[in-house]
Batch of 2 targets.
Target 1
Amino acid sequence: MSRRGLLLILSSPSGAGKSTLARRLMEWDPTLRFSVSATTRAPRPGEEDGREYYFKSRAEFESMVAAGEMLEHAEVFGNFYGSPKGPVETAMKEGRDTLFDIDWQGGQQIRNSALGRDVVSVFVLPPSIAELERRLRGRAQDSNEVIAGRMAKSQAEISHWAEYDYVIVNTDIDKAFNELLTILQAERMRRDRQPGLAEFVRGLNKEFDAR
Amino acid sequence: MSRRGLLLILSSPSGAGKSTLARRLMEWDPTLRFSVSATTRAPRPGEEDGREYYFKSRAEFESMVAAGEMLEHAEVFGNFYGSPKGPVETAMKEGRDTLFDIDWQGGQQIRNSALGRDVVSVFVLPPSIAELERRLRGRAQDSNEVIAGRMAKSQAEISHWAEYDYVIVNTDIDKAFNELLTILQAERMRRDRQPGLAEFVRGLNKEFDAR
């Protein structure tokens, strides 16, 4: 009897450590599947199609949406972003969990979809806004204008913290990672996510009856 | 702002390791409050009033039930057992979690009470019935008849495994304890169980507005 995979949604403002947490979780559990988003924005230097994003034209993206192939999608800063549905359904059937690094709009749509009961959602908060800005500026590849836009988006993103199952304040990345791991491990111990339990109990009952 | 304590309910057939797990959890976290049950059964040698149980006469027990002072109660083998409500409410207000070592009847009643949303329930299964019986006989203080009665009760108890949030198969006590700990730690990270988060986010917003 196969286990049904869960959907682990990680959201946070840019710079709160979400991507680092996602990367470390993928390293810790190679059976996790990372949901690569599709986007209409242009690739940045070093980005590879199918790794950071599936890069799509606006027409391609819109036809995927029309065909019901997106689990969620939204427009941000004039570009479309979305999570292709097919790979998620395949992973679930294989009993593999899928990790989503998406924003509140995507989280909200998946939670309200038919797959809502399989969602475990975690919001990552920065310890302070000064620290958030420091981390954003540390990347050093964006202009002041882009940074200002990101900070405005961060405030909007943070306003949705209360829609999530769990909240982690990322003061220390190792501590935050352990908390994320604890959440994933506990959610996997939920009765309805453990494969073969019903069969195991049937075995116990046979043993009782044979006494 | 004070945190509202949760109610951690641990159920299992006798001999599955539940009491050992409960004791180790209490040692690990001294802020946990153990819910001492009230009972009308006679004390066994070595048992102390207020430690293993609150020992009550039938009349005392019935008047507590009538006064609404029991969170749950049930009759087992002709004796009454119940969880006094007062200490639980006090612990919750103090932000302390309460640990219940109770059977499926008690678990069901608390889950269906006004405090149901504060419940985290864990069922502990033995690795096999042979092992369960071995552990029960290892205690060596009970007659064959009592053992037979316990085994019948064990089968009935196990039949309620699917009513619990989490299930732990206790093959190895250290592994089982780590799983229990993981569950408690994750449940404490749930957004609605973390004190002061709303205030923390208000602080972040003030920081945004002051930029």
Target 2
Amino acid sequence: MPLIAIIPGDGIGPEVMAQARRVLEYYRSERNFPLDLWDLDLGAERFLRDGTTLPKEVADRIRNEASAVLLGALGDPRVPSNEHARDILFGLRFGFDLYANMRPVKALADRLVPLKNRTAKDVNMMVFRENTEGIYVNVGGQFKKGTPDEIAINEDVNTRKGVERLIRAGFEYAKAHGKKTVHMADKSNAMKHAHELWYRCFFEVAKEYPGIAAKHLYVDALCLFMVQDPTPFEVIVTNNLFGDIVTDLGAALQGGLGMAASANVHYADPKRLAMFEPVHGSAPPLVGKDLANPLASFMTVGMMLAHLGWKEEEARIERICAEAIETGNCTPDVGGTKGTKAVSDWFVDRLKG
Amino acid sequence: MPLIAIIPGDGIGPEVMAQARRVLEYYRSERNFPLDLWDLDLGAERFLRDGTTLPKEVADRIRNEASAVLLGALGDPRVPSNEHARDILFGLRFGFDLYANMRPVKALADRLVPLKNRTAKDVNMMVFRENTEGIYVNVGGQFKKGTPDEIAINEDVNTRKGVERLIRAGFEYAKAHGKKTVHMADKSNAMKHAHELWYRCFFEVAKEYPGIAAKHLYVDALCLFMVQDPTPFEVIVTNNLFGDIVTDLGAALQGGLGMAASANVHYADPKRLAMFEPVHGSAPPLVGKDLANPLASFMTVGMMLAHLGWKEEEARIERICAEAIETGNCTPDVGGTKGTKAVSDWFVDRLKG
Ligand SMILES: CC(C)[C@H](C(=O)O)[C@@H](O)C(=O)O
Ligand SMILES: CC(C)[C@H](C(=O)O)[C@@H](O)C(=O)O
């Protein structure tokens, strides 16, 4: 029986996770999906109480017993520089080698698209963000700190193994889903070492997929084109930092962070533990106001169910999310007037019906 | 008499520079501005002919005699990885210590703004991009190249001096232009060393400008907000790489790269040599078709004239560019039907009239 570890986290994290949990409860009790839920007390509250972030015993138990982790959001203004958030988030992404951060940039309704003369069908791409290296390794240092001569360095570390497996995941996904093009974004015209590897590796891997067009873009051009005309983009592969930037920009095209879901997976082995999180953060200003949009967390549950083998449920959840937008059964960030809880009530009813 | 070194460069570079030159000729011959023009034969053609990029004697003469450099665009598919372009572009930016790359993101007409429910007045910000360090120093290397164990690294190198002077330029500009807010974008939640310096330095410098609000953003959030609602942004300060990304995204909000001008300056000393370039590239597919939009190069000339002391001309050139858009005297990329040359004919006539 698949065990799902749930980390509600901080801010609106627990608010949306409470609703995502109701969706999971529906599948468990009304559809008899064999699912075990394991609630983990990790996040800012816990860290402020006793300094715990992601203890080794917990990580080990997740590794040995869980099939998936569902994460709400992390980040709390009371924790200086949010060290707990990084420990937990990167502990999961790096610690479980979840090298592909899959972030669908898909608009569910025309009115969510902020661009003139574009409709929902124009915004439909899957971004594969490298999730275990790049600038996120946080290798570097500060020298002569606090003096006029201070130097501060971070290294963008890329390995053939890391770059290749992420690029390959993008092509495999394209092949499996009938996509015609994979775009790769780098800044190889400025970063001659790190991104020359991306450039070279991209076209090498592409040779193994003769039916799929491989197109290279500089990241600055990609951001421009995503706004000018997002229609050509089907699958995008890129490094950790650019994936972060491009998917937040992508969220704007989808109607905001309240609509953006993500899966962190070890793509080559679908049986391995994976981690699922809505792209949004803990959003302190929204806390306690029943304003958080739960749809991103529902679609994140959809991605998780697909990963666990129930692929039709992902499509079904997405369809009901689109209906929520169309019928106004949604929160104010996406043009509705309902609260978090009322949207979820409606959503679970629709799931049942 | 100010000497202007002109480097037309590659692709559409020479096409737009020929038109920018006509504007300069108008100021020289009809308005009697004391301007000397010096045409430099540098770019892909020259590099392919004899391997020359930016020779030391030329750089020295520019340094000793010129008041400004006007650059068209660099980049040619015939030059592997465009080494000539980097040599020349970074030779000018780094070599003359032009640490502030000022890129106005300003929409001149409502119809150029690609966002629903936004008008030209909503898009009006000045981006200060650090221009002499960051990931562009290209420090790093490749190890075990071509093997499965390859590692490729680029370092993001930031100095207190470099970060502080760029941030200070942003606040000085805000003060001089009555702007109320300066935003700084970094990724200090992931790059704990390099961007912690940016974060710390930003709020330290901000203390010296008590009348101006200092606001910090992560770069991913900035890209999202620029699309969701660009109105709060007046002045943005950021590092070299993020400045590159944000200003291409910004160009999309202005109506495309054909509308984006830039100045590369040593901000603290306005008497020093500066370099001016439209943000667009050499655009090989447009070459020879009379399709290149010359307006970005005209506004770039405007920034140059302001730098040389003729501030009113910058505003005048911008006004006529806005009129070109309003009256359809513009190229197809901005909704017109005219060619490069016809737009320039109209433009120079309007300058005269
Ligand atoms: C919180 C932050 C470190 C994180 C990231 O940059 O990965 C977030 O922006 C995300 O996209 O998940
Ligand atoms: C050509 C490239 C190296 C350059 C840069 O990244 O600076 C360009 O994109 C720019 O913005 O001027």
